[in-house]
């Protein structure tokens, strides 16, 4: 029986890399039915809304959504579409794995790190954002809750058990942010006690950033709050070749959105230049979420071999080819 997924092509290079990924999913025999929806600048131009109700309904109907990069116009009055989606569907767990690929122009080899980021609270919650009448003072409130901490920490430790991971690093700033980071660290210690087989380390966020650059092999899994996780996950992507090599999953109790984590790159939109790897890897995450491990393994193996051999790779991978050629190189291996 065919599974229906929501597909949001997105803006800029989004439609090109989403189309490439759909071709790969079809070639791998995934038997999906695709319900297409608009969001971001494309939706604003077509409907006057960044996130139309039809798109929200489509996400609600289907368990999984595959999403290209979105553009949120700069300036007042426009809320981030990605943040809105995470809060609307309570997608509290942001899952960002990075893994080294042979053939990439990265500084390190054998990187294999998963960053788990709390996705709905903290500095990105949008609470209490005010600017004084004079415009010379601004304020925002960071709020975290026991519920939010418990569920993201348990999500991380449960994932570590399923994936056979040995070590989790809890990242905080409790030495300065004694209330918010302090609460997160306190609850992390409570949760860690329920998982005695998993080593749990505690590190201050600035020390983590330095250690990731100097000795990234020291890390296995990282779990942290929203703002710190946003920064650390991009740093980790830099260890394996950049955001074009890193996928992202936003997971809740009832639904999930899988996405490219890079921007919409409007300067190369429609020029057949974009590397589709980030969305392909996000689709692999989606297959794992939908309990479809066989096509997930096949697509990853094909992608790894195409990159390692340099077959029709894009410019950021050291090649001279475009999106369609690289996509065909992966399809040929399937």
TrEMBL record:
<dbReference type="GO" id="GO:0004449">
    <property type="term" value="F:isocitrate dehydrogenase (NAD+) activity"/>
</dbReference>
<dbReference type="GO" id="GO:0006099">
    <property type="term" value="P:tricarboxylic acid cycle"/>
</dbReference>
<dbReference type="GO" id="GO:0006102">
    <property type="term" value="P:isocitrate metabolic process"/>
</dbReference>
<dbReference type="GO" id="GO:0051287">
    <property type="term" value="F:NAD binding"/>
</dbReference>
<protein>
    <submittedName>
        <fullName>Isocitrate dehydrogenase</fullName>
        <ecNumber>1.1.1.41</ecNumber>
    </submittedName>
</protein>
<dbReference type="InterPro" id="IPR024084">
    <property type="entry name" value="IsoPropMal-DH-like_dom"/>
</dbReference>
<keyword id="KW-0560">Oxidoreductase</keyword>
<dbReference type="Pfam" id="PF00180">
    <property type="entry name" value="Iso_dh"/>
</dbReference>
<comment type="similarity">
    <text>Belongs to the isocitrate and isopropylmalate dehydrogenases family.</text>
</comment>
<dbReference type="InterPro" id="IPR019818">
    <property type="entry name" value="IsoCit/isopropylmalate_DH_CS"/>
</dbReference>
<dbReference type="GO" id="GO:0000287">
    <property type="term" value="F:magnesium ion binding"/>
</dbReference>
<feature type="domain" description="Isopropylmalate dehydrogenase-like">
    <location>
        <begin position="4"/>
        <end position="330"/>
    </location>
</feature>
């Amino acid at each position: 029986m065919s599974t229906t997924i929501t597909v949001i092509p997105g803006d800029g290079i989004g439609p090109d890399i989403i189309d490439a990924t759909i071709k790969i999913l079809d070639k791998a025999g995934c038997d999906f039915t695709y319900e297409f929806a608009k969001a971001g600048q494309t939706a604003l131009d077509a409907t006057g809304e960044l996130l139309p109700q039809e798109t929200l309904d489509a996400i609600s109907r289907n368990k999984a959504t595959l999403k290209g990069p979105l553009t949120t116009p700069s300036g007042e009055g426009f809320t981030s579409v990605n943040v809105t989606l995470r809060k609307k569907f309570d997608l509290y767990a942001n899952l960002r794995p990075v893994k080294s690929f042979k053939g990439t122009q990265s500084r390190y080899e054998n990187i294999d790190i998963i960053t788990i980021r709390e996705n709905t609270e903290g500095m990105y919650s949008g609470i209490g954002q005010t600017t004084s009448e004079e415009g010379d003072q601004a304020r925002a409130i960071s709020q975290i809750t026991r519920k939010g901490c418990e569920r993201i920490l348990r999500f991380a430790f449960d994932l570590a058990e399923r994936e056979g991971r040995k070590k989790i690093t809890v990242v905080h700033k409790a030495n300065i942010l004694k209330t918010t980071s302090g609460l997160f660290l306190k609850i992390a210690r409570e949760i860690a006690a329920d998982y005695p087989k998993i080593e749990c380390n505690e590190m201050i966020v600035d020390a983590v950033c330095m250690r990731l650059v100097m000795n990234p092999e020291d890390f296995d899994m990282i779990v942290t709050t929203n703002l710190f996780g946003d920064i650390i996950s991009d740093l980790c992507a830099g260890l394996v070749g950049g955001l074009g090599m890193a996928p992202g999953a936003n997971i809740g109790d009832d639904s999930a959105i899988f996405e490219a984590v890079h921007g919409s790159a409007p300067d190369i939109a429609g020029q057949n230049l974009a590397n589709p790897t980030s969305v392909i890897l996000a689709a692999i995450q989606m297959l794992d979420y939908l309990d479809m491990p066989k096509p997930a393994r096949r697509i990853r193996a094909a992608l790894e071999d195409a990159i390692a051999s340099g077959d029709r790779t894009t410019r950021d991978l050291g090649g001279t080819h475009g999106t369609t050629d690289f996509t065909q190189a992966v399809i040929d291996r399937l």
